[in-house]
Specification:
The protein has 270 residues and is of the alpha/beta class. The chain is built from seven helices and 13 strands. Helix 2 packs parallel to helix 6, helix 3 packs parallel to helix 4 and helix 5 packs across helix 6.
């Protein structure tokens, strides 16, 4: 599908919303404008999708989605109007102001890693496990986008974020780290399991076997894994060492699992 944008001049790495031209208001918020097609005709674009120019070069990338408040002609928020759902586009190169016709392409996988830590969310502990997820996954699979998130051990916040990342943003792989044990604040597995469309017991069994080879304490892990929409969610332990051990057990199966989950019709082969 060809999409016609009116690009707001931006620098490489700058992130701006994509709003319908009729809803864009520079006095209220700088944004790119969607000229054609109508917003309802644009298919759901998952995080990591690129907008490419005529020569095929990726110019903008979908790095999120948001609801923007509607505004009046004077640039003030209009409480009587509906909010506008929009993509967040990050520029992959410097772009000048003006019209731009693009096509969409997604190559590789998108990864969200979510660190659950009360101390980390207050800035009292450095996150070492989340970056390890990103590093290991990037070494094993081609990634088009990777983003980390930090939350306290609060079930409502985790539930809202997992639903947002899987069903709205469309991340391919979502890995959590922390909160899989028996402490009163360990809530990750029960929150995750309640959301899954289908569990992946083979993933949790493989991770448990890998952990038991290192320590008998692995038996207390309650990690969950499964599919929500077209995303795979995996609970990993909180320590960097345990993250490496557990993730190594399932990484080889992830590309095939994601392909099947997202509708690959090819035979699995012998």
């Amino acid at each position: 599908m060809n999409i016609l944008l009116h690009v707001h001049a931006c620098k490489r790495g700058q992130c701006l919303p994509l709003l319908p031209v009729a809803a864009a208001n520079a006095d209220f918020c700088r944004s790119h404008g969607l000229m054609t097609p109508e917003p309802w005709a644009v298919p759901h674009l998952r995080v990591g999708t690129c907008f490419c120019g005529a020569c095929g070069t990726a110019l903008l990338q979908v790095t999120g989605q948001a609801w923007m408040p509607a505004c009046s002609c004077g640039g003030e928020p209009d409480p009587a109007a509906h909010a506008v759902h929009c993509l967040l586009l990050t520029a992959l190169t410097d772009l000048p102001e003006g019209p731009l016709e693009v096509t969409t392409r997604k190559t590789g996988y998108s990864l969200a890693w979510v660190t659950l830590s009360d101390k980390g969310s207050r800035g009292q502990r450095q996150d070492q496990s989340g970056p390890a997820i990103a590093e290991m996954t990037a070494a094993a699979m081609p990634l088009c986008h990777s983003q980390g998130f930090m939350l306290p051990d609060e079930p409502l916040q985790l539930r809202a974020l997992l639903v947002e990342l899987a069903l709205s943003q469309g991340y391919d792989l979502i890995c959590t780290t922390g909160g899989t044990g028996l402490s009163p604040r360990d809530i990750t597995p029960q929150v995750t399991a309640a959301l899954l469309d289908m569990p992946l017991p083979g993933f949790t069994q493989a991770m448990l076997a890998a952990s038991l080879a290192k320590t008998p304490h692995a038996v207390i892990s309650r990690a969950a894994a499964g599919a929500l929409g077209q995303s795979i969610i995996i609970n990993l332990p909180g320590s960097r060492k345990a993250v490496v051990e557990n993730l190594a057990a399932v990484l080889p199966a992830l590309p095939h699992a994601l392909a099947k989950l997202q509708g690959d019709p090819a035979d699995c082969g012998g």
